[in-house]
């Protein structure tokens, strides 16, 4: 299925913006959540042992990582439907 | 610190194993992630000449390869956080840390290889048959779970101290 022209594409800049946004999101949010959860929740509020709190924050970080990846896959999967309909050319 | 020098239980070379564990965790994971990124990157470059509108869908193998490196990073940070100098750092903990690092490192290497090969073939195939996308995602998830198993074993090993 070849598509003539760029009728049903998102503009380049918009695609770039979305990809950069999600890539930064996927990289930064799990790393931040590791240290945030470790220092504030597990060490601060619950006062766990260092090893236990590190392990729990690692688990939290990996879960957050997969949630963000799932969001990106969902966005990429829905991209075709969000794109404007092809313009009819005569 | 109560003990002053190295003992039989915690010799001077004990931390060597732990340091090597932290290093091998990130080195081998990054090796796998780099292979996955490069291999699926060539597929994306070949595919997007004809179908540039599929670039956003095709980036997924690259992101998944990056996640393999994050697994290694997590274990390396965990190990590096519990490294100490010899009197408190036993040789047993060094072995445990080496094992944890090697577990996540080589699992990440294997998962990165799988993601690279599947991603290369998958994005080229998706350009010709868009319904392949779901299959590509599923195979990529199964490839990435291999690295997750290594992470689980590494964290389980890490808690045995």
From TrEMBL, chain A:
GO terms classed as biological process: vacuolar proton-transporting V-type ATPase complex assembly
Name recorded for this polypeptide: Vacuolar ATPase assembly integral membrane protein VMA21 homolog
Species the sequence originates in: Parnassius mnemosyne
Transmembrane parts of this sequence: 20-42, 54-74
Pfam families: VMA21 (PF09446)
Signal peptide: none
Keywords in alphabetical order: Cytoplasmic vesicle, Endoplasmic reticulum, Membrane, Transmembrane, Transmembrane helix
Keyword Transferase: no
GO CC field: cytoplasmic vesicle; endoplasmic reticulum membrane
TrEMBL record, chain B:
Domain V-ATPase proteolipid subunit C-like: 20-79, 98-157
Localization of this protein: Membrane; Vacuole membrane
Gene Ontology MF: a single term: proton-transporting ATPase activity, rotational mechanism
Transmembrane segments: 12-38, 59-83, 95-120, 132-158
NCBIfam families: V_ATP_synt_C (TIGR01100)
Quaternary structure (record): V-ATPase is a heteromultimeric enzyme made up of two complexes: the ATP-hydrolytic V1 complex and the proton translocation V0 complex. The V1 complex consists of three catalytic AB heterodimers that form a heterohexamer, three peripheral stalks each consisting of EG heterodimers, one central rotor including subunits D and F, and the regulatory subunits C and H. The proton translocation complex V0 consists of the proton transport subunit a, a ring of proteolipid subunits c9c'', rotary subunit d, subunits e and f, and the accessory subunits VhaAC45 and ATP6AP2.
This protein's name: V-type proton ATPase proteolipid subunit
